[in-house]
Amino acid sequence: MYVIAIGWLYVTLLMAATEQNLTAGVLTFLVYGIAPLALFLWLFGTPQRRRQRLAREVVDDVVGKDDGADARRDQ
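The structure corresponding to this sequence follows.
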């Protein structure tokens, strides 16, 4: 997925470099490059974020349980 993102940024950077003035180049890079890429990475990163959240919840459940193996001070 990152190869696509790098390629897209390269293409939009070249598009921005061919603009007539600096303002048009910066706006081209932001509107055609950064904004769609941020949306793309956010949308396609959602399943990974969901998996990470579920993994953290499972670890928290396992770590938080008392299995009775700890010898307390009175034993």
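The chain has one domain: 2-63.
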